[in-house]
Amino acid sequence: MNFWEVAFSLPMWPLIALALALITAFGFEFINGFHDTANAVTTVIYTRSLTATPAVLYSGFLNFLGVLLGGTAVAFGIVNLLPVDLLVEGKSNAALVMVMSLLLAGVTWNLSTWYFGLPVSSSHTLIGSILGVGIANGLWKETGLNGVNWVEVKKVGLALLCSPLIGFVLSMLLLLLMKVFFRSPRLYTPPEGDDKPPTAIRVALIATCGSVSFAHGSNDGQKGMGLLLLVLIGFLPLHYALTVNKPEHAPVVFAAVGELREEYAKAGVEIPKSDDPKKPKLGDHLEVIERELKDKKSFEELPPNKEERWDVRQAIAGVGRDLKKTEADDKLPEEFRKKLTKLRKEKFLPAVEYVPLWVVIGTALALGIGTTIGYKRIVKTVAEKIGKTHLTYGQGAAAEAVAGSTILIAAVTGLPVSTTHVLNSGVAGTMVANRSGLQWKTVSKIFTAWLLTLPSCILLAGTLFWIGRLIVG
């Protein structure tokens, strides 16, 4: 069954809610386009390397490419913040409320800050909204704060906290280094009148703008994919429990169980099992996979509307978690651990960590088109109001070079970082290095927005979730 067949099998109200959730999710990514990517085009516009229209079209296209080519590591970093089994445990009402609450909270905060020209982070917005519904769900069910994957939260939080500092320091150092090797005063004074940068600098500025745009697409585009995956898993958990891109991967997973048992036997390591069915271990997960996938040539042969599909997903995900812990045990033979890593990444995880192709293309279009609209408010703040003078050619190149490389590295390693804060802090760093001075009123506003975004979105999403649960029960 394809998406349309499964979606239209839903009752009327869940179907309407699914449509609204998808529209809102794509809307969030559209807003992300003009909210965050405005930062990327600021330097080329204000240094007159490109006029506004070609700049935003160029940036939009590279955002589109970034989403298509950027992989999925960050997407699953987002998905894993909220244990997806919560969406299934809550069944229809709780899942609908959870998904709609985080979507509405994210869109509301992003539009509000854009209206006032504040370059806040869509990453903070989305993560705060996810945490808000996770925490509220735990409180609603009186199970405490276990509605959030706190291990993943710590990792993501550290990336969001450190990335602006990295942007500030590296951009400052890069500009100082540029002054040593490129001594032309023209590079470090604001352009006047119709002055345009030298050809080499113009090429460099256009290239760095492109790198930030591509990096933004690869990192923030994946956040949009993660958001859409939460929607799909929340509304259609059984259909999207296992890969719909390569359902023929089922025999590969089944065969991998045998390979895994062989590796454990060779290494003389016992496969752990549990006496508590609520706390299964590796051996229990392997038995589920062997039982359910025996003689199956495709995941599509599993009953489409039965819990067995979700059981297989949970078993495969459990194998992935258990193997990752074993791989980190340096008391075990290195060769054994390398083989476990290969089996986990190449055989098991592709069955559950995937993004449907239409989600990738839809996210790319939403982000790319959004880039071309509504960018002026943020551009003006970044270029005119962070420093006491306008951006120089050297400052633009240094800030964007650092931002692009930092965000791309984060995308490859699966860490969601803020394009907005990496680039804004980079611009501030170049202002300090260039002795241009900072407009502390603007800097304090940006810092306050950075400080308030996470708790505000947690509170807003949690409140919306609570109100929704009171209404629907």
Outline the structure in words:
The protein is mainly alpha-helical and 473 residues long. The protein has 2 domains: 12-239 and 357-472, no CATH class; 247-351. Helix content is 72%, strand content 0%. The chain has helices spanning 3-7, 12-36, 38-46, 52-69, 73-79, 85-89, 91-115, 122-140, 150-181, 199-235, 250-267, 282-293, 307-327, 334-348, 357-371, 376-384, 393-413, 419-433, 440-472. Helix 7 (91-115) runs antiparallel to helix 10 (199-235) and helix 9 packs parallel to helix 18. The longest helix has 37 residues, at 199-235.
Structure characteristics:
single chain; 473 residues; 2 domains
Major beta sheet summary? none
Helix content: over 70%
What is the H-and-E element order? HHHHHHHHHHHHHHHHHHH
| Percentage beta strand | under 5%
- Determine the N-to-C terminus distance: 31 Å
How many E-type strands? 0
- The number of distinct structural domains comes to 2
Q: Tally the helices: what do you get?
A: 19
Low-pLDDT ranges: none
Radius of gyration: 24 Å
**How does the helix and strand content classify structurally?**
mainly alpha
Instruction: Quote the average pLDDT.
Output: 81
Q: What is the global morphology?
A: globular
